[in-house]
Amino acid sequence: MYKEKNTYDKPTKKSANAVGAVMGHYHPHGDSSIYEAMVHMSQWWKQNECYIDMHGNNGSIDGDPAAAMRYTEARMSKDSEMLLEDINKRTVGLVPNFDDEELEPIVLPAKFPNLLVNGASGISAGYATEIPPHNPGECIDAVIYRMRNRKCTLEELLEIVKGPDFPTGGIVQGIDGLKQAYTTGRGKVILKGKTFIDTSKADPRIVITEIPFDVNKAQLLKKMSDQIQAKNVDGVRMIRDETDRTGLRIVIDVRRDVNPEYILNFLFKTTELQVNYNFNMVAIVRGKPCYMGLIDFIDAYIDHQKEVMRNKCNFDLERALKRQEIVAGLIAMVSILDAVITTIKNSKNKADAKENIISKYGFSEIQAEAIVMLQLYRLTNTDIFALKQESKELDQEVRKLKSILSSNSALNNAIIEELLHTKEIIDKPRLTQIEEEVTEVEVKTEDVITKEDVMLLITHDGYLKRISMRAFGTLGEGEQTKLKDGDVLTDIYSVTTVDVLLQFTNLGNYIFLPIHKIPESKHKDLGYHVSTLISMEPNEKVIFSFPVADFDEDKYVLLATKQGLIKRMKISSLKVNRYSKALMATKLREGDEVVSVDVITGENAEVVIATYDGYMNRYDAKEISIIEPSSFGVKSIELKSRPKDFVVGAKYVTEKDIILLLTNRGNIKRMRPDEILKGKKNHVGKMYLKVVKSNMHNAINMDVIHGVNAKSSLACWIFCNEGKVDIDYTVLRIAIADNGKRFVNDDKMKPERIVISRNDNDLI
Known about the structure:
Layout: E1 13-14, H1 15-25, H2 31-40, E2 52-55, E3 73-76, H3 81-84, E4 94-96, E5 103-105, H4 114-117, E6 120-124, E7 127-131, H5 136-148, H6 154-158, E8 171-173, H7 175-184, E9 186-192, E10 194-198, E11 205-210, H8 217-229, E12 236-241, E13 250-254, H9 260-270, E14 274-280, E15 282-285, E16 288-291, H10 294-335, H11 337-345, H12 350-361, H13 365-372, H14 381-406, H15 408-426, E17 433-435, H16 445-448, E18 453-459, E19 463-468, H17 469-473, E20 489-496, E21 500-505, E22 509-514, E23 528-529, H18 530-533, E24 542-548, E25 555-561, E26 565-570, E27 583-584, E28 594-601, E29 606-611, E30 615-620, E31 634-635, E32 647-653, E33 658-663, E34 667-671, E35 686-687, E36 699-705, E37 716-720, E38 724-727, E39 741-742, E40 751-756
Parallel strand pairs: 8-17
Antiparallel strand pairs: 1-3, 2-3, 4-5, 6-7, 8-9, 9-14, 10-11, 11-13, 12-13, 15-16, 18-19, 18-20, 19-23, 21-22, 21-24, 22-27, 25-26, 25-28, 26-31, 29-30, 29-32, 30-35, 33-34, 33-36, 34-39, 37-38, 37-40
Helix pairs in contact: 1-2, 5-10, 5-15, 10-13, 10-14, 10-15, 11-12, 12-13, 14-15
């Protein structure tokens, strides 16, 4: 564009014209990449200094694409002149273009540190860089200060360059991260949008006036809307985009009964209204990529400017000396004007006239050329005076240029003078606010979700129903909530919308599901299968569920696997912020699976382990190590002596509990915990199934009815391969020597597990 004279003081030309010129003369890239670069250099929300003045649609902060190059017009901006000034004075090196027909500059003279002012982002030749934009006036002041104080420290420079200055404004938090980045070239800060809460109306409003740099406004609005639609936050009436030519403005209407600070913190936490900005300041210095701190950038720019200034002065000196020689010759000619004219008149041609003048009067080649090309009107007295005045000015210019080239202080002063002039043109107020401390944003569920009492219904097949208290109360006597054919209701809990449902699966995972994330249902609805709310494996099934109101309580999860591993986990270790998929509760060996999960309150409980061969062991729960979810468990019972044996259940018990043991023949055996011999962890245990001559009983499942319900008749079932069988455990006598009572009389039905309906009476 510069070569085509498509500058700021000329009318704009079609963008396609500039794209074609670049493609034809300099870089044979695709036209789209060239045009996208042009568009980028014209967008105020991407650049502190826009180098292209584009007329027409050049995109938007919402991510809208620019119009095609045939529809837009462009020219160089005035600020771009600062990058190219003096480029024709051999100030920078030139190399041949791609076809060796033209020369192009290696770098630009750049009257200001452009790499700091506009920053850089991207990957090239395997090197990634992320240099944020900075305020142009601050960068120039820092360069000047460094030139005047070569031993200055980074702390001194940070008094001038406060930090990044993004064209979109915002707030940068974390002075320690800034210092690290400006020291090593790498660091991290927090970048937030600027907001305020408007309470002038009946309903408060959150107003966003600036968003973080490089954040797409349309995507930000969509993310906010998605959070509201997903019911991750309550109390937002409406989100409006009121952005116009006067500036960016997003308004969020909040209900008057909701604290807008909570909503704002939630948006900071869950959307790009607050982002991490990572410095990765890699630049090429003397052909080599390297990490650069602030001082490194400034020193490299100073070295570059010194080279540019020396090259410029040498060019100007050469031109001034040549002109000085010409002017001296013209002034000398005046004293012998008539003779010179006569000599020229008597010469054959221009070349002969030059030779005659040189030989007769002692003029140089340059002087002779100027004399023969002189127009007659220049021989007036006025022009002779002008020549003498010019001679004096040239003498001063030559002395100044030689002084700059011979004195480092004069060289520095000349650079500083140009920098001050540049600052007058491109300086602008700082947009980004710098805050020393990082504000920790803590969002509690109860702050952003309206707390409401609801009933949670869980079925054996994994369906969940969240029913409001009012709707739950409308269920008439004898009526039942709708269930899938063959399914049964296993758990009924009175919970709140700020509680969390934990569900454990056979594959060693657990599901963290906030109650408010479960859509509300009616009695006539089937509810929602857990796999539609949380991503799960195809062969994964839930084996245990319970709600949690407080993760700080003294509670532990007891988890046992088929191969005999067991572990305790603090319930607090299961609390997470991201829960889009099932999370690891325990590591599993190949072929292993989780067979039992329970919840222990405190340290004083005991644990009962049951195996397929009928062996059981009882010991204190505190013998089991507290382990993180990402680890394997420890051995619960000795299985080496019985290679085909495996664990079928592990539960915590107290003296008032009832143990139910299910056998492969459909028998239920009722036992008291004190009937189980107390031993140590990883002991062999004792067999508690009666040996029979044929068709031996084997334990396939165990469950516990806890003390508060031990004397009542809870709903219990035996689930089989084909349907279910109701059982009444109260009819069972406690007899340690027998195999219990048979409830599955159909040999075609293979029993699988006991299901005990849990309700609010034994709510965890």
